[in-house]
Structure formats: structure tokens, C-alpha cells
Design brief:
homodimer, mainly alpha, 3-stranded mixed sheet, 22 helices, 3 strands, 64% helix, 3% strand, globular
Chain lengths: 496, 496
Amino acid sequence: MSELYDKLIPHMEKGMALGTALGMLQWDNETLAPEESMQYMAKVLGILSGEYYKTTVNDDVKALLKELSVKEENDKLDFNQKAIVKKLKKDFDIMETIPEEEYRAYNELVANASNIWSKAKNENDFKYFAPTLEKIISYQKKFASYRQKDGKALYDILLDDYEEGFNMKLLDEFFGKIRKEIVPLLSEVVKHNDTIDKSFNSLEYDTEKQKEFGHFLAEYVGFDFKKGVLAESEHPFTMEFHNHDVRITTHYYKNNLESSIFSVIHESGHALYEMGVEDALTQTPVGGGTSMGMHESQSRFYENVLGRSKEFWMPLWDKLVNTFPEQLKGVTLERFIRCINKAEPDFIRTEADELTYSLHIMIRYEIEKLIFGSDIPIEELPALWNQKYQEYLGVTPPTDTLGILQDVHWSGGMFGYFPSYAIGSAVAAQLSHTMKEKMPVADYLKEGNLVPIREYLKDNIHKWGASKNTNELLLATTGESLNADYFIAYLKEKYK
Amino acid sequence: MSELYDKLIPHMEKGMALGTALGMLQWDNETLAPEESMQYMAKVLGILSGEYYKTTVNDDVKALLKELSVKEENDKLDFNQKAIVKKLKKDFDIMETIPEEEYRAYNELVANASNIWSKAKNENDFKYFAPTLEKIISYQKKFASYRQKDGKALYDILLDDYEEGFNMKLLDEFFGKIRKEIVPLLSEVVKHNDTIDKSFNSLEYDTEKQKEFGHFLAEYVGFDFKKGVLAESEHPFTMEFHNHDVRITTHYYKNNLESSIFSVIHESGHALYEMGVEDALTQTPVGGGTSMGMHESQSRFYENVLGRSKEFWMPLWDKLVNTFPEQLKGVTLERFIRCINKAEPDFIRTEADELTYSLHIMIRYEIEKLIFGSDIPIEELPALWNQKYQEYLGVTPPTDTLGILQDVHWSGGMFGYFPSYAIGSAVAAQLSHTMKEKMPVADYLKEGNLVPIREYLKDNIHKWGASKNTNELLLATTGESLNADYFIAYLKEKYK
């Protein structure tokens, strides 16, 4: 028992409560709030962010964290408490460098930015978004510069925030492999695309029926509706308040069957991670997933490794056909599987197949490197974006809506986040490799029994929350640190 | 310009932000949150309520409000600022008497109570709810006793909170008239009920179509979807965050056409009030409706005075019939109007006609009087409830679900609130009387033009927010204070 730790609890709980409120307002804005609300809610978000700041960064907390980090005091803590103190200390060290007024103004800016981006995207008007984007970038550069040490690059600082230990050196290597192996593989694969007729996917699919099937599918992979919600938003996402309240969203398109199916499986993968955290960590600073990269590994594992396999669909195929008998008339399971794995260069990241997906990420990575490593004018970004799409994917987006405006991330200030998607793919492939050595994954899928798979992930990854980091979890589960070769091998085997 | 007032602004804004967050969590719990969430969210609500308390009740605010209430300083303020200071002072004087720890514990209790009540209601298990209800009553008694002066009755203190100037003396008089005039009228009316065949109302009505019609109807009466949301919940309600974000809910029943139609019109009436508040008051302490009674007058005016009239339905009838052609085959507009105005004693308040509605309220009023005026044991309440239903309405609820467990209010600690519904009916009748002298209301309804009606209410009532109280608004608009005779006359004319 540590008296000092007990003193930390009220600060932690107040931070948790304010964080929950901020999250709820954000959730509401993305899923439900009426058009005119956000300009007023931005003020609320600004004020609450200021309070959050004051709760997290103050002399009392600073002194407590300092004392609790000293070995003698630290030894009094149990495993979870140690993890909590470590996490709080890390967050504190970041937050402390930012003046409260700037933190609050930045949060108000970002609260408004999502709607500005959304309007710009809908109206294909990059210029409308550009001044906001410029301000966000300038804040991000400033915030990173506050903790710049030993000439460390600004972008490396951001990368490390999303995934401990990651930097441009590692990612250049990673994407180097991707460029070397995947680009030629893609051009090879594309040559044989003519034989895959995917036209059924763009027939008309009743939205209500898609909703029912989406709900069924989420439940099928293990999403617990007593602990979660499936709603709709422009851009699918997962948001957790605690392990007993995890929300996912999807977007139903009338003329695209695949889109909502795979976004539901993807977001369910995220949700299973959060729902699987053990109750000892509920509503604590380590009560959520450990990193964005590990999170993406779970979503991509469910979406791609499981969800795009033939075995996964074997027990489900009849149900899907019965839900849409006219549209899927004459479509065989074999053809469906080929279609949902068809690799085809296109503009939109979220709709991309596994092979091209990493290239979409690589483009964003290279542009972010440039933004944070130079003073490239904002107005030059759309052309740069299109040029890179032409270079790596052989296509040029006809509009900015289909180009640089497609992703919500930058409007939320999430620079350095995109590489997590690539890390996620690599972690998923590595975990999958180990899991297949330990259990008959394909057989379980065929039987429609996803419990052993979910339990394995829960025991090895989910239950730990953020009490261990990505590399600790990977080492304990697979016996080695992150190794991108499993991902390259996985893609090669799949597409060759 | 007042420097003191400027110093008050940050306190006010922080209170507004925390209040908004609390409201959002409550909205989410009522409309969307998964089953297991609330027990954890209650902790968040408890902490944020504590913060709200600290923001509202502290020495700085106390000193500022005191100085700003002195004539010399008060004269420096404009009309809205004066109203804001007055409102804050009133709230402060109430809150100050409650110790923070009790305020916080009470809010946590109430946050959990809604789900406990809901479970008890679903399972017809009053005993499951009783201990919670007992705790809430005991808190309410204690809180009221903290500001008891000159032997004022506890229940009078609560009544005054919901409607300034109201007390048991006035309400005993009001309900005395109701009892004397309405009870005999009802038994007269019921004798002729056999000729009204309402069976079409309980045929099967597709929920999706009801939703579409509900959405249309809200828009028809003037609900602005750029400033609002229509969602679903167990019990219909309205919640506003500010005049650009007003939410209403309804409940769609497969075998009840009328229910959602009139709850949508009712809640839209509430929403129009909030949406009509002028922008100068947005997100200030007087940015919402002035009292529950005035609020109910607006909802009941739209639901009953307008919404149950033949003129209202003349331009809408074809659309309703076309939405449900099979179910409404052979039903004439005349019959529909007779049906939606059929007076019939039944168990459920929210489904009650205008004539019996006041009796439902009278029963709750009498029971609340007893609760706060005596030490009646909780376990005796269900029998008392049923006995009063038998006495005034001639029916005995077969279950507590249809009896004492039907209303959410007590689980939210809202004692003294129910009489607002009766005050609302009286205000609506009085306003309607004046309005009909000023403009051809029936003609506007026939033309499907609700704009002049809405504008009249906006100019005379809505735009003022809470900067004037009910009696000030009534005096300015109708030339006299609240007068229950208009309501009695309205009912007599309608049902005779």
C-alpha cells in the first residue's frame, strides 16, 4: 500500500471523468449532433479541455508522480499501479511542455476543424480547409518543438507518441521493403484482374438489411451489445469510454455491399480489444489498448486475416445470400472470396485491398515527413498527393475529395498516426503466424466457432490493456519483437 | 459596463460547460448507451457534479453575486445581465445550503436510479426500486429542510423551485376546481363513448413508416433539424444544450399509431420554445425556457390545442392515409378527430386524453403532498396509488408497471414537478384564448401555415428565454396573471 498513490487517485479520477465527457461530446458530434451545434459545442470542448489540462498538469500531480517514480516508493506499488504511474508520468511530461492557453485554443480549433474538413470534402474545396489545416500543423510543430531534445526530428517525436520506440529510421526501412516487394507484386497481380467480375458488389443493397446483417456480423465475431453500440457516421471509427462501453460506427452505402461489411468487422476487432481489457483496469489510465499500432493489428487481423478468408465465410455464406437473394443470385462463395480479395489500385484508403493499403499509408507517411521536415506551402499538398498516387499506384485522383481530403485524421491533428496502420498490418501477420502454430484457426472458422481465437487474443493481448507496451506483448506472445517479414510473406503467399 | 460582471463570466462559462457535459451523458444514457455502461458512467456523473458544485458554489462567486445585487452595481447591467445575475443568485442560494459531498452522492444515486427504475418497471417489481426511491426522497427532504424558513412546508419549497410563487394553497384551489368540474364532466362524457370505434389505432403500423411520418410532423410544426435531433427512448423527452441544439425523443409502438404522433408534436412544442430563444442568451444561465410550467404550456398547446383540432389535420389527413392506406381504409377525418379526442379513464398518464390528464396529475400531487408532509412508508405507496386511481378515474391498475412505476420522474428526484403539467395546461388555454383574439388561428391551420402562430409565440414567450418569469410573460401577453378558468372553460366547451 502506498499513501502517495492514494493521493493520486482523485486527480486520476477527475481526469478520467473529464476525458469521458470530452469523448462523449466528440462521439455525439460524429454520430448525431445537428449541423449548427458544433460551433457552440466547440466552446464547451475548449473549456473542458482547459479543465482537463489543469487536472493533469499541476504541482500536486507533478510532485506525486516524481516521488512515486523513485525506486523505494515505486516498489510499494503492484504491477497495475506501476503501469499507471508510468503512463501518467509519460503523459505528464508531454502535457507539461504545452502552455494551458495554447492547449485549450488548440482543442477548440480541432473541435471546429472536423466540420470544416467535412464541408470541404463534400464540396471538393481544399482551399476552404487549408487555413485550418495550416493552423493545426503549426500547433503540432510548436507542441513537438517544446520537447525537442538533442536535435531529434519533430516528426520522430510525433511517431513516438503513437508507438513507443518508432521513428523514421525504422519506418523508412519498413516502407523500403514494402516498396521493393509490393510495388512489383501489385503490377503482376493487376495483370490478372480481368477475370474477376465484381459487378454484383455495386448493385442496390437495402440499407435496413445491411444494418441487420452488420449487427449480426458484429455479434458473430464477438461484439457484446451489452457493452457496446453500433452506430453510423461519415467515417467508421471506434471509441471506448471504458471496457463496458465501447462504441463502433460504420457507413452504409446503397451501392456497395463490401464497404459496411468489412468496416463492421474491422471496428469490431478494435472493440474486442477494448472489451477484453480486464476489470481491474476499468476507468484507469491504462484501461484502453496499448497503442494505435497494436489496435490496428487487432482490427486488421479480424478484417483481413480472418474476415477475408474462405473459411470465415463458409458458415456465413448462406445467410448473406438469403439476406440479398436477388443481388447475389448466381454468385458463388469462391467468386465472392476472390472479389473481396481483389487487389486493385484506387483512390480511397479505407476501401483499399490489403496489397495496396500499405502504399496508401506510405504516401501519407512521405507527405507527413515532408510537412514536418520542411516548410512546404499548404497549397502545394494536393498536387503532391496526386503525384505520389500516380507514382506508386498508377492512378491520379480526379478530385481532392477523392484525394487529399479523404481522411479525417489531419483535421483532428493526428500527424504521425498513419504509420500505425502499417505497423498494425505487420503485427497482425506476426500474431497470426504464431496463433496458427498453436491452434487450428481455419477449422474453428469453418465451424463458426470464434471463441478460442478471441480467448487467445484476450489472454495474450487484450486483458493487459495499456499495462504492457506493443513490444512487450509481442515478445511474450510470439517470442520476438516486431518483424515486418511476416507481413511481406503473408501478402506474397496470398497474392502469388 | 461592469467589471464585476466580467469577472463572473469565466465561472458562468465553466458551469455551462460542465452542465452541458452532464446533460450529454444523461442524453446518451437515455437514448443509446449499452446496458452495462451506466454503473460506470454514474461515477463520471458523480465527479462532474462535484465539479459543477465547486464551480457554482464558492467564495468568489458568492462575493461577486452579492456585490452585483447591490443597486448601484446592478444598475450598470443591461436587461439580460440583470436577469442572469438574478438567476445565478437564486440557484446559488439553493445550492449553497447543500454540502458538496451530499450533492455529489445524491447525483451519483440519481444517475443509477434511472436504470433501477427502468428494470423495476419492466419486471413489475416495485420492491426492487423501493430502497432507491426511499433514499432519493430522504435526500429531497433533507435538501428542502436546509432552506426551510418560518415553518414553510417542505413540499412548498419544492413547488416553488419548479414554478416561482406556487404553493399548496394555490394548487389545492386549482385542483379543487378540477375535481368539482372535471370529475362530473368525465362521467357524463364516458356514457357516450360507445359510439367511438378506435380499433384502427391498434392495428399494426410499420415502425419505419411511423419514423418517417414523425420526422415530417416535427418539421411541419417548425422543428428545425439543423438545430435539433429526433431520437428514440423509453419515455419521450426534450433536452436542450443551447438554442442551436435541441433534442427530442419519442417511442414508436407497433400497435399504437396515436402514441408517437402526439408525443412528437408534444416534444416539438418544447423544442420550439428552446429553439426560439434569442441568440443574445445562447449558453447563458437564462438561455432556456423560464419554467417547467411555461414549458408544458408550449408542448400542450401544440399537442392539444393545435394538434388535436380538426383544422390542424385537414391539410395532413391525405398524407397520413397515404402513409398507412390499409390501416386507415374507411376511416374518415371526422372519425379520426373524434378518436384522438376520446376521453377515457385509463392507467397511463402519458397516453391520457386532455380531460383525464389533470386527474392523473392530481393523484401524483396528492401523493407527493403526503410523502413530504408525513412519514408514509414507501411500501404503502403502490396501494395508495391504486386506491386513488379507483377513486378519481374508476380504474385500478392491474400491475405496478401500469401504476406507480409508470413515470420516470421520481427516479430523477423530480418531486414537485408534476403540478407543472397542470399549470402548463392552464397557461396553454389562457394563451390560446388571447391568441385567437389576435389572429385567425383556425384559418392558418387549415392553410397548413403555422408560421404566424410560431412567430407570435416566439415574440411573446420564446425569445425571452428565462429572462422573464411565467407571470411576467403571461401578464405582458394576456394582460392577466395565471387564471385556471380558461382551462376549465376550454375543456367544458370541447367535451360538452
